[in-house]
Amino acid sequence: MQIRRANTILYCSRWQETVAFYEAGLQLPVLMRKDWFVEFRLADGAALSVADQSRASINSAGGQGITISLAVADTAVLHEQLLQTGLQPGPMRQSWGRDAFFICDPEGNRLEFWS
């Protein structure tokens, strides 16, 4: 098997709020937009999509049991940027010997940012 691209799809009941969180709050670039599905670029070969569960065959998991872990260049800088945009990231802490913090999207999915 040779995987060339990875995409995580989150099925959401709070679709519009969740799209706004990733687009306006986290300022992720949009790769594709449909009336019920938006794909965001995370990195080369990696994407995160948000789908409206009312238009899909899969329902929201309500964020239960999901953590999306993302390595970034500087967690302290990102943490401050998110605070400035009005988002409410959790406190900076040490996790597995690295600087990290968590934030949840409107659907309840947990994102971990670390460096």
UniProtKB/TrEMBL annotation:
SUPFAM superfamilies: Glyoxalase/Bleomycin resistance protein/Dihydroxybiphenyl dioxygenase. It comes from the Bacteria. This is VOC domain-containing protein. The lineage of its organism: Bacteria, Pseudomonadati, Spirochaetota, Spirochaetia, Spirochaetales. It comes from Spirochaeta africana (strain ATCC 700263 / DSM 8902 / Z-7692). InterPro entries: Glyas_Bleomycin-R_OHBP_Dase, Glyas_Fos-R_dOase_dom, VOC_core. Residues 4-115 form the VOC domain. Pfam families: Glyoxalase (PF00903).
